Amino acid sequence: MRNKEMTFKIGGEAGQGVESSGAGFAKALARAGWHVFGMQDYYSRIRGGHNFYQIRVSDKPIYSHTEPVDLLLALTQEAVNRHCQEVVTGGGVICEECLEVDCEALDKRDVNYFPAPLTDIAQEQGGAEVMRNTAALGVAAGLIGFPFEVMASVIEDNFAKKGAKAVEGNLRVAEAAYRFAGDNYADRFDYELGRIEDAPPRMLVNGNEALALGALLGGCKFVAGYPMTPATSILQWMAGHGERYGVVVKHTEDEIAAILMLIGAAHMGARAMAPTSGGGFSLMTEGLGLAGITETPIVIVEAQRPGPATGLATRTEQGDLLFVMHASQGEFPRIILSPGTVEECFEAGWRAFNLAEMYQCPAIILSDNFLANSVRSIEMDALDFAGVEIDRGELLTDDDLDQLESEYLRFAYTESGVSPRALPGHPKAVYQATGNEHTPDGHLTEEPEARRMQVEKRLRKLDTALHEMDGPVQYGPPEADLTLVGWGSTYGPLRETVDRLNAEGTTANMLHIRDVWPFPTEKVKAALSDAGRTVMVEGNATGQMAFLLESHAGVKIDHHIRKYDGRPFSPEYILAELKEVENG
Amino acid sequence: MRNKEMTFKIGGEAGQGVESSGAGFAKALARAGWHVFGMQDYYSRIRGGHNFYQIRVSDKPIYSHTEPVDLLLALTQEAVNRHCQEVVTGGGVICEECLEVDCEALDKRDVNYFPAPLTDIAQEQGGAEVMRNTAALGVAAGLIGFPFEVMASVIEDNFAKKGAKAVEGNLRVAEAAYRFAGDNYADRFDYELGRIEDAPPRMLVNGNEALALGALLGGCKFVAGYPMTPATSILQWMAGHGERYGVVVKHTEDEIAAILMLIGAAHMGARAMAPTSGGGFSLMTEGLGLAGITETPIVIVEAQRPGPATGLATRTEQGDLLFVMHASQGEFPRIILSPGTVEECFEAGWRAFNLAEMYQCPAIILSDNFLANSVRSIEMDALDFAGVEIDRGELLTDDDLDQLESEYLRFAYTESGVSPRALPGHPKAVYQATGNEHTPDGHLTEEPEARRMQVEKRLRKLDTALHEMDGPVQYGPPEADLTLVGWGSTYGPLRETVDRLNAEGTTANMLHIRDVWPFPTEKVKAALSDAGRTVMVEGNATGQMAFLLESHAGVKIDHHIRKYDGRPFSPEYILAELKEVENG
Amino acid sequence: MVEVRDYQSPVRPTWCKGCGDYGIWNSLKLALAELDLAPHEVLMVSGIGCGSKTPDYTHVNGLHTLHGRSLPPATGARLANHEMTVICVHGDGDGYGMGLGHMMHAARRNMDIVDVVQNNRVYGLTKGQYSPTSPAGFVSKTSPGGAIDRPVNPWSLALAAGATFIARGFSVDLRHLIEILKKAIQHRGYALVDVLQPCVSFNRAYAYNYYQPRVYKVEEEPGYDPADRAAAWERAHEWGDRIPIGILYQAEGVPTYEDQVAVLRAGPLVKQGFREWTEEDYAVLRSGFM
Amino acid sequence: MVEVRDYQSPVRPTWCKGCGDYGIWNSLKLALAELDLAPHEVLMVSGIGCGSKTPDYTHVNGLHTLHGRSLPPATGARLANHEMTVICVHGDGDGYGMGLGHMMHAARRNMDIVDVVQNNRVYGLTKGQYSPTSPAGFVSKTSPGGAIDRPVNPWSLALAAGATFIARGFSVDLRHLIEILKKAIQHRGYALVDVLQPCVSFNRAYAYNYYQPRVYKVEEEPGYDPADRAAAWERAHEWGDRIPIGILYQAEGVPTYEDQVAVLRAGPLVKQGFREWTEEDYAVLRSGFM
Ligand SMILES: Cc1ncc(C[n+]2csc(CCOP(=O)(O)OP(=O)(O)O)c2C)c(N)n1
Ligand SMILES: Cc1ncc(C[n+]2csc(CCOP(=O)(O)OP(=O)(O)O)c2C)c(N)n1
Ligand code: SF4
Ligand code: SF4
Ligand SMILES: [Mg+2]
Ligand SMILES: [Mg+2]
Q: Do D282 and A386 make contact, defined as CB atoms within 8 angstroms?
């Protein structure tokens, strides 16, 4: 049987290379022409514990993982214990012979048991026990008849930086394992996953990478940040690419320094971005207000993880929405985007800079661990590189300034609220920027009228910016009995849910909010005006987006599905919860 | 004529002792039996600029300043220029002869002009120009026939710490000025403000002092803070009283350290408080979440000033409500109180500790510059010292712990969400507290079920705490055509407005929200259910409390009066705005 | 008699096999037991990082706080209960990076806290970025071209800040580290114990093989006097073929911060109980507002 | 030729009469003019405090930021435009208290920033609380019983942190301060200029009369060599009857942070313009994900 879809799960300890082998296998599958969605689940520790990597492949585009596992690669007893029951009838379990497996239970459900001497193969062929993961992949590839040369090409690429010995060792291990599967389990497994011959090449990208790419192409020149899961890889990707593409990347002493360095750099004219998570954003709170009152365009990426405080460092949640909306004393405009897909991350990466510069205020991209770290295969043109636009808003050129006849007023009162901006360095635009209230020329003032005018000028930018905010993205039939509403990383699971519901006969669609602030009230209202039953699905305990919908657009959601256990939504989870909703 | 009410305004530069003489005069007036309300208005600079101190006295209790000035004491030309037009018909202006005064304009409005050789008196009698302010007070006291000995008693008390010479000098200056007024302007001024013979003694207290008193009597043992206007005087008052009453007071290196020191101290069992303003609170954001997840009871006083960032450092605003409500990543319970009067500040001072300990979470007292720094005379029993209660919630004693039979679980799942708390130091209660998610015994966990249980346990505390939250305070006739709604420091001006409206024939009342979070939805709804026309009066630009009312209680306010120029509301301003509302 | 096993927690460490944190952890437990301090008499405060999980693995009063922030809560805890022995344990990123300001202030105050820094010269928990003690040129995920920030020198910073006890241990030499820790705990005042802590996962270049041949004990140097501040300054800069460990500096007799807080003369704050307010107290308080 | 009046702002200082900030302000303007630096070539970054208002009173590119935070934005500004001369001006509370961590890190990075600290040993703007440089026993509104935190020693901290230029001026001795500032501006790397700055309103004990008889110039000491780090360490601790001013320490030839950032070899970041992306670039980028 030639399969159209399949889910692999690789489970083991931190340090066993679960993530790297999972990512490698995902890449191989993508290279073979499959659509791929890969997600990781790991503990906040370097060794031990129990991590897994889950890969779903399909011959059609997919946006999410799903729960049932077709082939489990269990590297540890824990992985066996935790995941065997997730394997579907007809599926299989690959693991070391010595592990305890309840074969009877597997048999009952017609799950195939594929014991394999992974450690032996790793040691004999590769000379190192750590290559056990490669052995497992080799067995898996063998079982499904995956073209070995594709797998080999990924091994070559991935281990290249570790040297020829690593490449060769892993190749030998993979090959031996592949052969082992063929020799021992030929025809024992009913899945076949070959190469899709006519498939175009695709990229495998996660949210962080897409966002970093968007920022890079959008003219990001300066990145300052402090490592924090799940935002770290943006900082690291930029550090790895900065020298080549002209981006200065600074690992700072803390997040306070990061946001203030952004303000310094952006004030001078560089497009500047800081990736962080909730804890780092907390430390940026005071600086955010400084960007607000000095009208300095900066971009912060807040990749959420479960709080409060350190919470669950390597897991996912959507619990910081109201926090980023209201962070810092006083009232000032900010832009908040919450992309839901890899494509939207890319767009947010450059669009945030435009919005920040057009409205001279901080722009925040609110992402989360699930979106940040899950990879999806996309078409080569899905991230529209050439379509990236750079709009610096009302930025005065040297020529403009040369011709200036009156004194330059950095914080001039304007109808739009936006005051034409000059960068320091021109003799005609020597001005003050300050976190204290100020007159149009930037000097300190405490006069009530001047204060009132500046407050209003700044807040007017929100009205102006509102036009730029997109309404919810719709997916599914325009008219439907059931409308699922979501934001951010729930896009994928929701989309899959909608497809399944419609396939099962329920007409359902979804509305996905991606531009959060200024809240596109009218667009949201319009989108939801003739929705049927509405169900809000979000990853927090208090229903933060539902609260925004109700309080800012007067939309009362009928039912709520929430999750705050650190794990992402799956379509199955949503479907089950929808059943619950129906039943009571 | 013997007056029932009068307003003094002392205006001058920073460094001229405007605030100290204003406060001194207010004290003298209170000692003479008058009800007093005193407010200051000053620039964020140490010398120069233009400051004023305004004192309203009455024979009836008052809660607010009002705008018209009866007697202006102008120490500078700027004070003359700015304030002469505020003086009412029949009122007067005291100033140095050499200042330029538009006597014609004064004459036209029947305002008395009382030139006086203030500097000469100061120099001749006191030997120092700085005593000019005392001279002005002396003249004022002379003009209104204020009992000199009362004034002298205040001078003696206030200057005692500066030494006998300062006391004597100021006394001589005051007396000479007093005599000068008698000699030159006898019967020229139609106001008389003697001693109210049968008046009981009263205290003159501002919001910060009342709050500090409440905290002290409420068992505050530890204060850590970093000076920040307008909260500094709490830190300083505590520093001044700590040694005597057993409070350790630490001026920290920054506000991050302040909140973390609180957490350390509160964790060990000390009632701990940190006073700050918005900027400092921003820096506390991350620590707030740590208190949330470790369930450590701490009290933060956030005395608001206009933001963003440094904003208007010495002025007032109510712009941080939504910020403190949502600060820090993740979702966890916090208590927010927003006292509106000196009495409520006192109560909040001790009540916050009880709530923090009962619900094992951070409690925030949201005040503002106007409330923090304005003094009001109150009856001796208005702050109910003996009524202060200390409720430490579910705190296990050593005895309890001695008798413990099973392992102590600091974060046990309970119906109320509150887990009985043991302080470190007992051999049977050796436990972990952590900012990571944890099991009931305090050890780190990443398991979804344990996470979910802890999130829900913590959030349940909000439901439990809701019962403790008071609904809005009502003032005025129970049934009224017009209901003014406010919170925090607007209490005084609103109350005065209500009195005037009713006196003028409009039936009006007010509802004042003082317990903000958890939001007492039902009580607010009930209070507003049969209100007539509603007008929300708040000191910010975006209507933050109005937003809460609408979003959490479904109460839609009819009209809004907002102010964000750094100055407090006055009854006149509110009345004028109400007219505007009426007219369109 | 307290024994090491009294410090045993049901939770096992999650550190990598071979991580230097094990040695520090064991040394701490041994030092405490040898000083006959019971678990309930000790508060262990940590930040965030691999090593900062130490309290979770130890049966002791634990307070696992925020990245870079262990000294302020330790300070608050000491001020609230100065009978409690308070020990901070945190990483180099935590202590010398984000938390460096707090360290400087804790040192100048001479807070009676033992400050153990697990110095693996890398960020462990976030998987390998360069830290404030990473050498110049160190290649890491945030310094792919080699670090260009010159590293901090914790010893000289502590000395400049006025620390009254400054030491360095090596996580492999348990007995030596235990003795340092015991002296640090017994020292009255701020005690920095920097510990060379191999990270086998992200900093293989600066691990056992690097340190073992280089470390030497200052106390074995002829004439070395830890009371000599100038000598300490010089020695603090030694880092290369020879790396000193041991007690670099100790100043006796400098009063601790806690010693000088008047209120604490009446005993630990948490044991003082709430004041029984009298009418007289009320009158005095009221008189301040009249 | 740039002249002092080019730096004249329409806004007049709001400082107290006699405040030491005037002297620092004037010295800064004179130093800049004498170096022929025009206002648009200079960015002055400040924190919050009395002295931090300096940019507001100066016709210069000004960035008046947050309390304790002037060094990070100055760092960002330098990295974005390293042709700009960047000078921080802030108080002792700001720089040595809240901002001490940033200072340590800026110094070790050798950021090419002049860091002028207006050291009046008190909090001026918030009206008289003790600061990190207030002497032990200092009575203030937050230390009514006398401060018990031992003061920081900015010179020794800077030295320990690796600062390559460390100086102290006295706000009254303008000519001397101007020369220090000029050398600090010309110095390539982090340059601390601590300035003794009398606060006439809140710290009368440590004002002109205190300093005038005590200060002496290190450069006038026979044989004083600012390149000698050990001598600098010793001198950094001199504080009493004799208080050294002048250039304590200067290390030449240490590369600045900016020098070492590869991207900046192509010129100031803000002048590099946006990259013209080619199809080839796109292909390379895409290939990273395949
Ligand atoms: C405010 C904040 N920023 C970032 C992080 C992420 N983080 C956790 S541990 C760590 C660094 C760990 O390095 P180190 O302190 O040296 O400890 P080690 O893991 O090496 O023991 C970082 C950056 C965090 N928890 N909080
Ligand atoms: C986060 C924060 N906390 C507190 C303040 C209040 N504040 C303003 S200036 C200042 C201290 C000023 O002292 P210093 O830095 O020495 O400067 P000086 O006024 O003496 O020049 C303080 C505490 C603030 N602006 N921001
Ligand atoms: S990553 Fe390094 S520091 Fe962390 S546990 Fe592993 S060896 Fe230890
Ligand atoms: S308070 Fe002190 S530092 Fe501030 S302006 Fe006055 S004299 Fe200068
Ligand atoms: Mg480390
Ligand atoms: Mg100062």
A: yes
**How far apart are the C-alpha atoms of A141 and A181, rounded to whole Å?**
8
Q: Do B455 and A541 touch (CB under 8 A)?
A: yes
Residues C93 and C210: their CA atoms lie apart, in Å, by 20
Structural contact between residues A239 and C144, judged by C-beta atoms closer than 8 angstroms: yes
Distance CA B236, CA B225 (A): 10
The total domain count for chain D is: 1
Does A228 touch chain C if contact means CB atoms closer than 8 Å? yes
Spatial distance between the Cα atoms of D39 and D4, rounded to a whole number of angstroms: 10
The CATH number assigned to the domain with range A205-387 reads 3.40.50.970
Helix (H) / strand (E) containing D204: none
Q: What is the pLDDT of residues B393-406, one digit of tens each?
A: 999 999 999 999 99
* Same CATH fold assignment for domains B205-387 and B473-583: yes
pLDDT 10s digits, D66-104: 999 999 999 999 999 999 999 999 999 999 999 999 999
Q: Distance between CA A59 and CA A196 in Å, rounded? A: 8
Domain range enclosing C209: 4-287
B5-199 belongs to which homologous superfamily? Pyruvate-ferredoxin oxidoreductase, PFOR, domain III (3.40.920.10)
Average pLDDT of chain B? 96
Q: Burial letters for D43-79: b for 16+ Cβ neighbours within 10 Å, e otherwise?
A: bbbbbbbbbbbbbbbbbbbbbbbbbbbbbbbbbbbbb
Looking at the complex, does the CB of residue A447 fall below 8 Å from at least one CB of chain C? Answer: no
ipTM over 0.95: yes
Q: Is the dihedral of CA A413, A415, A417, A422 positive or negative?
A: negative
Residue of D nearest to B15 (CA): D16
Cβ neighbours for B279, distance < 8 A, ≥ 6 positions apart:
A286, A289, A329, B228, B255, B307, B309, B310, D66, D67
Kindly state if the Cβ of C201 falls inside 6 Å of ligand 3: yes
Distance to chain C for A272, nearest Cα, Å: 17
Residue range A159-165: mean pLDDT, rounded: 91
pLDDT at residue A2, rounded to an integer: 62
Neighbours of chain D (3+ CB pairs under 8 A): A, B, C
Chain B hits for D123, CB-CB cut-off 8 Å, are 227
> Which ligand neighbours the alpha carbon of A278 most closely?
1
Report whether B396 contacts B422 (CB < 8 A). yes
CB < 8 Å to D156, chain C:
159-160
Partners of residue C74 in chain B, C-beta under 8 Å:
264
Q: Are C193 and C117 in contact (CB under 8 A)?
A: yes
Indicate which CATH number applies to the domain containing C188. Answer: 3.40.50.970
Residues of C with CB below 8 A from B270's CB? 79-81, 269-270
> Cα of D168 to ligand 6 centre, how many Å?
15
**B48 has a pLDDT exceeding 90:** no
* Cβ contact B177:B132 at 8 Å: no
Domain chopping of chain B, boundaries: 5-199, 205-387, 398-467, 473-583
Please give the C-alpha separations between residue B11 and each of B40, B67, B97, B146, B425, in angstroms, as whole numbers.
10, 14, 16, 20, 56
Q: What is the pLDDT of residues A332-369, one digit of tens each?
A: 999 999 999 999 999 999 999 999 999 999 999 999 99
Give the mean pLDDT of chain A. 96
Tell me which DSSP letter residue B467 carries. T
- pLDDT digits over A105-131, tens only? 999 999 999 999 999 999 999 889 999
Q: How far apart are the C-alpha atoms of B311 and B277, rounded to whole Å?
A: 12
CB contact under 8 A, B235 and D67: no
CA dihedral B60, B62, B67, B68 (to 10 degrees): 10
Give strand ranges (E) for B371-524.
Answer: 375-379, 432-434, 473-475, 482-487, 508-513, 515-517
Residue B392 Rama label (left phi>0; alpha psi -120 to 50; beta): alpha
* B473-583 topology per CATH: Rossmann fold (3.40.50)
